[in-house]
Amino acid sequence: MTNKLLSTKTLEDILNRTRGALEDGRAQMYEVAEAARIECRRTEAVFKDVQAEMREAIRDVERLTARFSRIKLDLFESNKNFSEYSEEEKRLIYEEATQVREALTAAKERERLLRVRRDNLEQTLAKLQEIAAKAERLVSQVGVALTCLSSNISDVNEQIENFQAREQAGQELIRGQELERRRMASALHDGPVQDLANVMVQLEICERLYDAGQHEAAFESFVRLKGFTQASIAQLRNIIYDLNPMTLDDLGLVLTIKNGLSNFSKQTAISTDFVLLGTEVRLDNQIEMAVFRIVQEALNNCRKHANPDRVQVTLEYSNRYISAEIKDDGVGFDMPDIQHKLRTGKHYGMLSMQNRANALNGSVQIQSEPCKGARVLVRIPLTEGKGVDRDCVT
């Protein structure tokens, strides 16, 4: 029993279990840190918007206050020199005073609500920054512990000497795997969430206008909000589709890519072509999802960097592999620069593509020259280990 407890295998099993728990914890802490940073950026943007709205509200209050003071003088004069004003003139002065007083009350309430919201955002931002900083420190500390546990018992000393390089590589791998999730979270926070926050403020203003008897102005604001909300719903639907393209399960990879190209063309005005080689067959969900995500990431790169007139996607089915080629006629790029970014883990989009292909023993090839467009080719074997190279950039 003692010999079994003191065996090398037992110690290595314990180390592996400990390492696995630490890796899970580090990934979760990294998610917390990234989510906090994204939320910080989103909150800072909202905070600036609220500050701008508050400055505008203060100007409105000052303007209406000055106007109301002038009207009060008119009222005083009309009451003092009663006989010099006609009934119609006195009625108009009184109605104007009533309208300005109601508008001033609504403007002051709007300013108060914006001040409360600004103060809440300021407190939230400070807390988020504290959370992000603490999570990043923990990620770094756990990374050091993981490095020490990532080796077997005989080469612990050697691994400790190289732990900095291993930690950096591990961090970049996690960043590549989490790229898609971070992008979607950013899209939600910077788009629909911020839009809905602004809707809430505008609804409160509409409510005040309605309560103040300004029904026509309130109705016009509600009509504008309806269109604004419809646009936010459409944006949410696009984000949900990016997170989980339901057509992939229902209609297959070919139609899903075609739909994606159609949406891409509508959003960017870039012409697209789709070519199918071979006959479509339904594949394992992981393979279809990986191919779709790689095509999606390549199109995103075209949208952001390539400025092309045309993009062509070629999907090929064979007995041994499935491949997808994405070609554009855009500005291209310098391959040595891209190779350097990939080696240092700084091109998260391409790193994400390579990680997806790697997980299925596939390959990603990237070719480009300045002013000559770019070509991305992904190939994933359908029978593991037959004629497939690892990820490469040529």
Brief account:
With 394 residues, the protein is an alpha+beta fold.
Any overview of this molecule?
The chain is an alpha+beta fold and 394 residues long. It has 2 domains: 2-241, Helix Hairpins (Orthogonal Bundle); 245-381, Histidine kinase-like ATPase, C-terminal domain (Heat Shock Protein 90, 2-Layer Sandwich), CATH 3.30.565. It is built from 11 helices and 5 strands. It has a 5-stranded mixed beta sheet. α8 (253-268) packs parallel to α9. The chain is elongated and about 100 Å long.
Largest sheet properties: 5 strands, mixed
User: What is the CATH architecture descriptor of the largest domain?
Assistant: Orthogonal Bundle
Flag low-confidence runs: 1-6, 156-166, 385-394
What integer is the average pLDDT?
Answer: 76
The share of residues in helices is over 70%
Q: Quickly give the structural class.
A: alpha+beta
| CATH topology-level name of the largest domain | Helix Hairpins
Give the oligomeric state of the chains in this entry, treating copies of one chain as homo and distinct chains as hetero: single chain
N-C termini distance: 56 Å
Query: What is the number of domains?
Result: 2
